[in-house]
Write a sequence for this structure.
C-alpha cells in the first residue's frame, strides 16, 4: 500500500496486498483525450510540491510511484489503460510474471533481451538483485516494505552497502533471478510491481546519490533537477520500445514544475494558454469545483474515485491515546460530514466509516462509530478525562488538509479536547510521520491499495510486528496479539474470495480497538490542457493521470 499523494503532491496516492489486483472505479466525467498521443513535443506537469524522493527505495506514494514508471522499469508492472486494464500485472523487464515452485515460496524470472541502463550498460540479474537488496539499507530503505516483508533474509542483513550480497536472491546466470520467500505468497508478481523492485548497476546509489541523479532503465532520464523548483526528463536513447509493452513514451520531454500555488495551477489550467495547453496537473482545489461545471471545460475534465481512505491515525504510545476509550470517544465525536465539507464537499469526497474503501473486493459497508457526542462524553468520563486534554495533529499545509484539520478541531471542542494543528512540509511529511521518534499525537494521512485486496490495507497499517524506526507505516504503533494472529491466518488462505471476506471481518475487529478515525474516501478531479492526448485516470495510481500514456495531439502546437 502507499500513502495518499493527491493530498500530498497534487498527483495521486498507495498499500500492501496478498491477492489479485483489480477494483472498480467511477468512470471519468470526460475523456479529455480522443485517441492516442502522437510522437514528439513537451508535456508540462504543474505541481504544488516536489516528489518525496527520486530514489525508489526511499519514496512510496501514488504520485511519485506514477512518476517512477517514466524513468524506471521492474520485473513486472501495472498495465496501461483506464479501469481494469491499468490494474493488470504484466511482465516488464521479465519475460513472464514469474514461475513459482516450492508451494509459492520460490519464484524464478527470466530477463528480456536488449534491456539497458541509460549509459548503455546491459541490465542483468545481478543488477536486479542489487536494486532489490537496497530495500534493506537502514538509511535508504524507507519506502515500500514488500521486499523486507516477503523475501527471506537474515535478521542482521542491512542492505548491499553494509552487508554485501543477499544469498536468498540467486542469480545463476545474467538472465535468471530467483527469489526465496519467507512463506508462500501466491501474488508475488503484484508485489514486484512496487517501485523499489528496480535494477541499478552494482555498487551505485550510496547515500543520497539517486535522489539527485537517478540511473534510468525506463524510456526517460533526468536531464536536470532543481529540488523544489523543476525537473526535466528527456529520452533515454538506450530504451528499446520493442521490449516495453506498457510505456507509449510519446513525448520527447517532460517538464515538471514544482512549488506552484494550487489556486495558480487551477487558473492556468482553466485558461489553457500557451504551453499550458500542453499541460497536466493534479487534483483541482475545492474552490474551483463550481467553475469547471461550465460546458467549455467538460471535455477537459477527468474525475474518478481514488480508491483510498483518508484517516486520522492515533499514536497509541502517547497518553492518553493509549486508552481505547479515548480513541473511541474521538471516533464518536468527529462528524464526517463536516470533514467532507472541509475537504471541499461531496464533489471531492464521500464520508468514510470503515478502514477499507469501497473499491476493495469483499469489503463490507458498516459504521461502528456514528456521530454521538453524548457517547463520546461518557467514554471520556470513564477514562477520567471529563476536562479534556491537548492533542497535536500533524498535517500538510495544503488547503484540503487544512480544511479537514479545522473540521476535526471544531468537532472536538465540545469535549474540551484542544487540537493543535502542526504543519509539516508536504515533501517530508510522510517521512516524518513514519519515524516514530518524530510522531506527535495524531496525523492526518491516507492509504491506497497497491492492488484490490484487504491485505493492501490491514497488514501494513496494523501488524504489530512491522513497526520500524524509519519507514514505519503502522502509525498507530498498535501491536495486538489477536490481530497479528488473524493476519497470519488469512495470509495462509488459498481461496482469494474467502480471504477477502475474512479481511472484511478483520476490518471490524481492528476498529473495535479504534486505532484510527476513517474520515473520507476522496475523488480526484483534474483538468487537462486542450492539446493533451492519451490521458486517463489510472486505478493503479489512485486516480492520477497515467504518465506512461499521456502525450500531445499536435506536438508542434
Amino acid at each position: 500500500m502507499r500513502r495518499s499523494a493527491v493530498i500530498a503532491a497534487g498527483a495521486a496516492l498507495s498499500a500492501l496486498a496478498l491477492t489479485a489486483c483489480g477494483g472498480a472505479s467511477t468512470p471519468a466525467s470526460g475523456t479529455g483525450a480522443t485517441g492516442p498521443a502522437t510522437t514528439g513535443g513537451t508535456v508540462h506537469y504543474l505541481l504544488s510540491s516536489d516528489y518525496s524522493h527520486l530514489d525508489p527505495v526511499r519514496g512510496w506514494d501514488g504520485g511519485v510511484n506514477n512518476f517512477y514508471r517514466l524513468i524506471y522499469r521492474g520485473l513486472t508492472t501495472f498495465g496501461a489503460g483506464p479501469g481494469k486494464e491499468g490494474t493488470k500485472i504484466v511482465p516488464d523487464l521479465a519475460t513472464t510474471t514469474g514461475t513459482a515452485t516450492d508451494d509459492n515460496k520460490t519464484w524464478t524470472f527470466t530477463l528480456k533481451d536488449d534491456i539497458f541502463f541509460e549509459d548503455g550498460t546491459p541490465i542483468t540479474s545481478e543488477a536486479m538483485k542489487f536494486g532489490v537488496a537496497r530495500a534493506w539499507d537502514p538509511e535508504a530503505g524507507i519506502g515500500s516494505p514488500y521486499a523486507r516483508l516477503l523475501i527471506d533474509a537474515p535478521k542482521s542483513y542491512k542492505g548491499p552497502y553494509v552487508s554485501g550480497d543477499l544469498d536468498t536472491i540467486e542469480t545463476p546466470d545474467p538472465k535468471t533471478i530467483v527469489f526465496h520467500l519467507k512463506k508462500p505468497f501466491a501474488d508475488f508478481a503484484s508485489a514486484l510491481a512496487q517501485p523499489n523492485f528496480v535494477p541499478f548497476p552494482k555498487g551505485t546509489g550510496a547515500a543520497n546519490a539517486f535522489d539527485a541523479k537517478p540511473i534510468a532503465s525506463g524510456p526517460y532520464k533526468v536531464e536536470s533537477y532543481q529540488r523544489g523548483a523543476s525537473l526535466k526528463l528527456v529520452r533515454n536513447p538506450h530504451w528499446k520500445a520493442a521490449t516495453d509493452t506498457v510505456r507509449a513514451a510519446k513525448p520527447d520531454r517532460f517538464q515538471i514544475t514544482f512549488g506552484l500555488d494550487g489556486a495558480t495551477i487551477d487558473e492556468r489550467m482553466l485558461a489553457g494558454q500557451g504551453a499550458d495547453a500542453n499541460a497536466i496537473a493534479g487534483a483541482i482545489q475545492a474552490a474551483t469545483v463550481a467553475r469547471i461545471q461550465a460546458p467549455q471545460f467538460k471535455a477537459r475534465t477527468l474525475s474518478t474515485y481514488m480508491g483510498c481512505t483518508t484517516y486520522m491515525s492515533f499514536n497509541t504510545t502517547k497518553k492518553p491515546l493509549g486508552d481505547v476509550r479515548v480513541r473511541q470517544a474521538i471516533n464518536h465525536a468527529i462528524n464526517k460530514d463536516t470533514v467532507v465539507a472541509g475537504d471541499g464537499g461531496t464533489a471531492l469526497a464521500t464520508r468514510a466509516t470503515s478502514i477499507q474503501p469501497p473499491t476493495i473486493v469483499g469489503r463490507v459497508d458498516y459504521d461502528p462509530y456514528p456521530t454521538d457526542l453524548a457517547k463520546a462524553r461518557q467514554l471520556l468520563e470513564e477514562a477520567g478525562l471529563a476536562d479534556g486534554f491537548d492533542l497535536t495533529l500533524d498535517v500538510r499545509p495544503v488547503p484540503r488538509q487544512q480544511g479537514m484539520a479545522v473540521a476535526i478541531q471544531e468537532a472536538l471542542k465540545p469535549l474540551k479536547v484542544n487540537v493543535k494543528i502542526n504543519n509539516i512540509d508536504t515533501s517530508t511529511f510522510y517521512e516524518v510521520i513514519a519515524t516514530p521518534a518524530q510522531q506527535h499525537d495524531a496525523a492526518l494521512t491516507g492509504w491506497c491499495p497497491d492492488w484490490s485486496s484487504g491485505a493492501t490495507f490491514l497488514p501494513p497499517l496494523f501488524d504489530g510486528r512491522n513497526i520500524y524506526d524509519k519507514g514505519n507505516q503502522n502509525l498507530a504503533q498498535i501491536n495486538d496479539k489477536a490481530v497479528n494472529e488473524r493476519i497470519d491466518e488469512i495470509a495462509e488462505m488459498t481461496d482469494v474470495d474467502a480471504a477477502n471476506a475474512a479481511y472484511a471481518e478483520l476490518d471490524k475487529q481492528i476498529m473495535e480497538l479504534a486505532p484510527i478515525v476513517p474520515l473520507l474516501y476522496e475523488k480526484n478531479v483534474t483538468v487537462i490542457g486542450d492539446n493533451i492526448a492519451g490521458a486517463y485516470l489510472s486505478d493503479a495510481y489512485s486516480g492520477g493521470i497515467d504518465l506512461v500514456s499521456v502525450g500531445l495531439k499536435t506536438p508542434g502546437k
Notes: Residues 309-523 form a domain with the Dipeptide-binding Protein; domain 3 fold (CATH 3.10.105.10). Residues 5 and 13 are 4 Å apart (CA to CA). Confidence is low (pLDDT under 50) at residues 4-32.
